[in-house]
Design brief:
Helices cover about 30% and strands about 10% of the residues. The chain is of the alpha/beta class. The chain is globular.
Length: about 300
Protein backbone atom coordinates (compact mmCIF):
# COMPACT_ATOMS: atom_id res chain seq x y z
CA UNK A 1 0.00 0.00 0.00
CA UNK A 2 1.23 3.52 -0.77
CA UNK A 3 0.44 6.87 0.77
CA UNK A 4 -0.12 10.27 -0.77
CA UNK A 5 -1.49 13.26 1.13
CA UNK A 6 -2.36 13.26 4.83
CA UNK A 7 -5.19 15.46 5.91
CA UNK A 8 -4.07 17.60 8.82
CA UNK A 9 -6.00 18.70 11.88
CA UNK A 10 -8.05 20.81 11.98
CA UNK A 11 -7.82 21.57 8.24
CA UNK A 12 -7.96 18.84 5.58
CA UNK A 13 -4.98 18.82 3.28
CA UNK A 14 -5.07 19.86 -0.37
CA UNK A 15 -3.78 17.63 -3.16
CA UNK A 16 -0.39 19.18 -3.13
CA UNK A 17 0.48 19.99 0.46
CA UNK A 18 4.01 19.54 1.65
CA UNK A 19 5.94 20.27 4.79
CA UNK A 20 8.87 22.58 5.34
CA UNK A 21 11.77 21.75 3.15
CA UNK A 22 15.11 23.12 2.11
CA UNK A 23 15.16 26.13 -0.12
CA UNK A 24 14.63 25.39 -3.80
CA UNK A 25 17.22 25.90 -6.47
CA UNK A 26 15.32 28.69 -8.30
CA UNK A 27 14.62 30.95 -5.37
CA UNK A 28 15.29 34.63 -4.88
CA UNK A 29 18.88 35.70 -4.97
CA UNK A 30 21.59 35.60 -7.63
CA UNK A 31 21.63 32.67 -10.01
CA UNK A 32 24.60 30.48 -10.65
CA UNK A 33 27.05 31.89 -13.13
CA UNK A 34 26.55 28.88 -15.38
CA UNK A 35 23.19 27.19 -14.78
CA UNK A 36 24.15 24.37 -17.14
CA UNK A 37 26.90 23.13 -14.86
CA UNK A 38 26.53 19.55 -13.73
CA UNK A 39 26.15 18.71 -10.08
CA UNK A 40 23.84 19.91 -7.33
CA UNK A 41 22.97 23.58 -7.11
CA UNK A 42 23.29 25.56 -3.96
CA UNK A 43 20.02 26.41 -2.25
CA UNK A 44 19.29 30.10 -1.81
CA UNK A 45 16.80 31.94 0.38
CA UNK A 46 13.17 31.20 -0.48
CA UNK A 47 10.72 34.01 -1.13
CA UNK A 48 7.17 33.43 0.07
CA UNK A 49 5.42 31.54 -2.74
CA UNK A 50 1.85 32.43 -3.63
CA UNK A 51 -0.73 31.18 -6.08
CA UNK A 52 -0.32 32.16 -9.74
CA UNK A 53 -1.74 35.55 -10.66
CA UNK A 54 -5.35 35.91 -11.73
CA UNK A 55 -4.12 36.76 -15.22
CA UNK A 56 -2.23 33.49 -15.57
CA UNK A 57 -5.14 31.54 -14.10
CA UNK A 58 -7.81 33.07 -16.33
CA UNK A 59 -5.76 32.67 -19.52
CA UNK A 60 -4.96 28.98 -18.92
CA UNK A 61 -7.50 27.68 -21.49
CA UNK A 62 -6.33 30.05 -24.22
CA UNK A 63 -2.67 29.40 -23.54
CA UNK A 64 -3.37 25.67 -23.51
CA UNK A 65 -4.72 25.96 -27.04
CA UNK A 66 -1.59 27.85 -28.05
CA UNK A 67 0.53 25.02 -26.64
CA UNK A 68 -1.51 22.51 -28.66
CA UNK A 69 -1.05 24.55 -31.83
CA UNK A 70 2.69 24.71 -31.19
CA UNK A 71 2.73 20.91 -31.04
CA UNK A 72 1.49 20.70 -34.62
CA UNK A 73 4.11 23.20 -35.79
CA UNK A 74 6.91 21.45 -33.90
CA UNK A 75 6.10 17.93 -35.11
CA UNK A 76 9.06 17.76 -37.55
CA UNK A 77 11.73 18.45 -34.92
CA UNK A 78 10.00 16.33 -32.31
CA UNK A 79 10.46 13.44 -34.74
CA UNK A 80 14.23 13.80 -34.26
CA UNK A 81 14.08 13.25 -30.46
CA UNK A 82 16.00 10.31 -28.95
CA UNK A 83 14.31 6.98 -29.65
CA UNK A 84 13.10 4.64 -26.92
CA UNK A 85 14.53 1.29 -25.83
CA UNK A 86 11.14 -0.34 -25.35
CA UNK A 87 10.99 -0.15 -21.56
CA UNK A 88 7.67 0.41 -19.83
CA UNK A 89 6.29 3.88 -19.08
CA UNK A 90 3.28 4.57 -16.84
CA UNK A 91 1.62 7.98 -17.28
CA UNK A 92 -0.52 9.41 -14.45
CA UNK A 93 -3.04 12.26 -15.03
CA UNK A 94 -3.72 15.33 -12.91
CA UNK A 95 -6.61 16.19 -10.62
CA UNK A 96 -10.04 15.67 -12.24
CA UNK A 97 -8.37 14.39 -15.42
CA UNK A 98 -8.35 10.89 -16.88
CA UNK A 99 -6.26 8.91 -19.34
CA UNK A 100 -7.90 10.92 -22.13
CA UNK A 101 -5.84 13.97 -21.09
CA UNK A 102 -2.57 12.08 -21.59
CA UNK A 103 -3.40 10.61 -25.03
CA UNK A 104 -1.10 12.97 -27.01
CA UNK A 105 1.80 12.38 -24.61
CA UNK A 106 1.31 8.61 -24.56
CA UNK A 107 0.90 8.52 -28.31
CA UNK A 108 4.19 10.34 -28.80
CA UNK A 109 6.10 8.13 -26.38
CA UNK A 110 4.63 5.03 -27.99
CA UNK A 111 5.75 6.30 -31.38
CA UNK A 112 9.26 6.72 -29.98
CA UNK A 113 9.27 3.04 -29.07
CA UNK A 114 8.25 2.85 -25.42
CA UNK A 115 5.70 0.44 -23.97
CA UNK A 116 3.33 3.09 -22.62
CA UNK A 117 0.27 2.62 -20.43
CA UNK A 118 -2.20 4.98 -18.78
CA UNK A 119 -3.19 4.47 -15.18
CA UNK A 120 -6.60 2.95 -16.10
CA UNK A 121 -8.27 4.23 -12.91
CA UNK A 122 -10.77 6.61 -14.46
CA UNK A 123 -10.96 10.24 -13.40
CA UNK A 124 -8.42 11.36 -10.81
CA UNK A 125 -10.45 12.48 -7.79
CA UNK A 126 -7.55 12.44 -5.34
CA UNK A 127 -6.07 9.71 -3.11
CA UNK A 128 -9.08 7.41 -2.92
CA UNK A 129 -8.94 3.81 -1.74
CA UNK A 130 -9.12 2.78 -5.39
CA UNK A 131 -6.01 4.83 -6.20
CA UNK A 132 -4.06 3.59 -3.19
CA UNK A 133 -4.75 -0.01 -4.18
CA UNK A 134 -4.72 0.40 -7.97
CA UNK A 135 -1.47 2.26 -8.56
CA UNK A 136 0.87 -0.30 -6.94
CA UNK A 137 -0.99 -3.01 -8.84
CA UNK A 138 -0.60 -1.13 -12.15
CA UNK A 139 3.13 -0.66 -11.54
CA UNK A 140 3.66 -4.30 -10.61
CA UNK A 141 1.72 -5.55 -13.62
CA UNK A 142 3.59 -3.30 -16.07
CA UNK A 143 7.00 -4.16 -14.57
CA UNK A 144 6.30 -7.89 -14.75
CA UNK A 145 4.97 -7.68 -18.30
CA UNK A 146 7.97 -5.74 -19.59
CA UNK A 147 10.49 -7.60 -17.44
CA UNK A 148 12.23 -4.47 -16.13
CA UNK A 149 11.67 -1.33 -14.05
CA UNK A 150 9.11 1.18 -15.30
CA UNK A 151 9.49 4.93 -15.79
CA UNK A 152 6.76 7.06 -14.20
CA UNK A 153 5.55 10.29 -15.79
CA UNK A 154 3.09 12.23 -13.63
CA UNK A 155 1.21 15.39 -14.53
CA UNK A 156 0.30 17.71 -11.62
CA UNK A 157 -1.26 15.55 -8.87
CA UNK A 158 -0.23 12.51 -10.92
CA UNK A 159 3.38 13.48 -10.31
CA UNK A 160 2.78 13.53 -6.56
CA UNK A 161 1.46 9.99 -6.87
CA UNK A 162 4.45 8.98 -8.99
CA UNK A 163 6.96 10.16 -6.39
CA UNK A 164 5.24 8.31 -3.55
CA UNK A 165 4.92 5.20 -5.69
CA UNK A 166 8.66 5.33 -6.43
CA UNK A 167 9.45 5.98 -2.77
CA UNK A 168 7.84 2.69 -1.77
CA UNK A 169 8.57 0.56 -4.85
CA UNK A 170 11.99 1.83 -5.90
CA UNK A 171 13.13 -1.50 -7.33
CA UNK A 172 10.31 -1.40 -9.87
CA UNK A 173 10.84 2.24 -10.89
CA UNK A 174 13.48 3.33 -13.38
CA UNK A 175 12.94 7.09 -12.99
CA UNK A 176 10.27 9.69 -12.22
CA UNK A 177 9.39 12.72 -14.34
CA UNK A 178 6.92 15.21 -12.86
CA UNK A 179 5.10 17.87 -14.92
CA UNK A 180 3.99 20.88 -12.90
CA UNK A 181 3.60 18.67 -9.83
CA UNK A 182 3.45 20.71 -6.59
CA UNK A 183 4.87 18.06 -4.27
CA UNK A 184 6.41 20.79 -2.12
CA UNK A 185 3.33 22.87 -1.30
CA UNK A 186 3.39 24.31 2.20
CA UNK A 187 0.17 26.35 2.05
CA UNK A 188 -2.32 25.01 -0.53
CA UNK A 189 -4.77 27.85 0.05
CA UNK A 190 -2.13 30.33 -1.05
CA UNK A 191 -0.18 28.27 -3.56
CA UNK A 192 -2.84 26.36 -5.50
CA UNK A 193 -5.82 27.48 -7.54
CA UNK A 194 -7.45 24.04 -7.23
CA UNK A 195 -7.47 23.72 -3.44
CA UNK A 196 -11.24 24.31 -3.34
CA UNK A 197 -12.15 21.58 -5.86
CA UNK A 198 -9.82 19.15 -4.11
CA UNK A 199 -11.41 19.86 -0.74
CA UNK A 200 -14.87 19.22 -2.17
CA UNK A 201 -13.68 15.73 -3.09
CA UNK A 202 -12.11 15.01 0.29
CA UNK A 203 -15.03 12.85 1.41
CA UNK A 204 -13.91 10.33 -1.23
CA UNK A 205 -10.32 10.19 0.01
CA UNK A 206 -8.64 7.52 2.09
CA UNK A 207 -8.24 8.03 5.83
CA UNK A 208 -5.67 10.70 6.63
CA UNK A 209 -3.71 8.41 8.93
CA UNK A 210 -2.64 6.40 5.87
CA UNK A 211 -1.34 9.41 3.96
CA UNK A 212 2.05 11.14 4.28
CA UNK A 213 2.75 14.29 6.22
CA UNK A 214 4.03 17.41 4.48
CA UNK A 215 7.57 16.61 5.58
CA UNK A 216 7.44 13.04 4.29
CA UNK A 217 6.18 14.05 0.88
CA UNK A 218 8.84 16.74 0.43
CA UNK A 219 11.75 14.36 1.03
CA UNK A 220 13.87 13.33 -1.97
CA UNK A 221 13.08 10.01 -3.59
CA UNK A 222 15.59 7.22 -4.17
CA UNK A 223 15.44 7.00 -7.97
CA UNK A 224 16.57 9.42 -10.70
CA UNK A 225 14.02 12.19 -11.08
CA UNK A 226 13.29 15.32 -13.09
CA UNK A 227 10.87 18.07 -12.09
CA UNK A 228 9.52 20.03 -15.05
CA UNK A 229 8.00 23.37 -14.08
CA UNK A 230 6.83 26.61 -15.67
CA UNK A 231 6.78 30.12 -14.29
CA UNK A 232 3.74 30.63 -16.55
CA UNK A 233 1.80 27.95 -14.66
CA UNK A 234 -1.63 29.37 -13.88
CA UNK A 235 -2.76 26.61 -11.50
CA UNK A 236 -0.02 26.03 -8.94
CA UNK A 237 2.96 27.98 -7.67
CA UNK A 238 6.04 26.96 -9.64
CA UNK A 239 8.18 27.18 -6.48
CA UNK A 240 6.22 24.23 -5.10
CA UNK A 241 7.21 22.09 -8.09
CA UNK A 242 10.97 22.01 -7.48
CA UNK A 243 13.46 20.81 -4.89
CA UNK A 244 17.23 21.21 -4.41
CA UNK A 245 19.16 19.53 -7.19
CA UNK A 246 21.38 16.55 -6.48
CA UNK A 247 23.27 13.96 -8.50
CA UNK A 248 19.94 12.16 -8.99
CA UNK A 249 17.53 15.07 -9.37
CA UNK A 250 17.22 18.02 -11.71
CA UNK A 251 14.67 20.82 -12.16
CA UNK A 252 14.05 22.02 -15.72
CA UNK A 253 12.03 25.09 -16.65
CA UNK A 254 9.83 25.27 -19.73
CA UNK A 255 7.43 27.96 -20.99
CA UNK A 256 3.89 26.61 -21.05
CA UNK A 257 0.55 26.68 -19.27
CA UNK A 258 -0.35 24.10 -16.63
CA UNK A 259 -2.87 22.40 -18.88
CA UNK A 260 -0.34 22.50 -21.73
CA UNK A 261 2.34 20.30 -20.15
CA UNK A 262 1.04 17.25 -21.99
CA UNK A 263 1.34 18.85 -25.44
CA UNK A 264 4.08 21.46 -25.05
CA UNK A 265 6.83 20.61 -27.58
CA UNK A 266 9.70 21.55 -25.27
CA UNK A 267 8.25 19.36 -22.52
CA UNK A 268 7.78 16.42 -24.90
CA UNK A 269 11.37 16.71 -26.12
CA UNK A 270 12.61 16.87 -22.55
CA UNK A 271 10.64 13.75 -21.58
CA UNK A 272 12.05 11.89 -24.60
CA UNK A 273 15.57 12.90 -23.61
CA UNK A 274 15.10 11.83 -19.98
CA UNK A 275 13.54 8.47 -20.85
CA UNK A 276 16.45 7.67 -23.17
CA UNK A 277 18.94 7.80 -20.26
CA UNK A 278 20.49 4.42 -19.37
CA UNK A 279 18.88 2.59 -16.42
CA UNK A 280 20.00 3.81 -13.00
CA UNK A 281 21.77 6.86 -14.39
CA UNK A 282 20.88 10.54 -14.19
CA UNK A 283 22.69 12.80 -16.60
CA UNK A 284 22.10 16.56 -16.56
CA UNK A 285 19.72 17.75 -19.26
CA UNK A 286 21.49 19.79 -21.91
CA UNK A 287 19.26 20.66 -24.86
CA UNK A 288 20.73 20.97 -28.36
CA UNK A 289 21.95 24.54 -29.04
CA UNK A 290 19.02 25.33 -31.32
CA UNK A 291 16.53 24.35 -28.62
CA UNK A 292 18.08 26.21 -25.69
CA UNK A 293 15.77 29.25 -26.05
CA UNK A 294 12.86 26.97 -25.11
CA UNK A 295 14.48 26.14 -21.75
CA UNK A 296 15.02 29.47 -19.88
CA UNK A 297 17.31 28.02 -17.18
CA UNK A 298 19.58 26.03 -19.48
Amino acid sequence: MIYFVRRSTPEPAGPHQAGPRQAGPRQAGPRQADPRQAGPRQAGPRPPASAPSAGLFLTEPVRGLVDLTALLVAAPWLATAPRGDGHGVLVLPGLLASDTSTLPLRGYLGWLGYDVRGWDLGRNRGPTEEVLAGLPRALLTHARRTGRPVSLVGWSLGGVYARELARRSARRVRQVITLGSPFALTDPRRQSRVHGPYQRLSHLHADGARLPTYEQRARPIGVPSTSVYSRLDGIVSWQACVEPETERHQNVEVRCSHIGFGVDPATLWLIADRLAAPPGQHRPFRPPPLLRPFYPDR
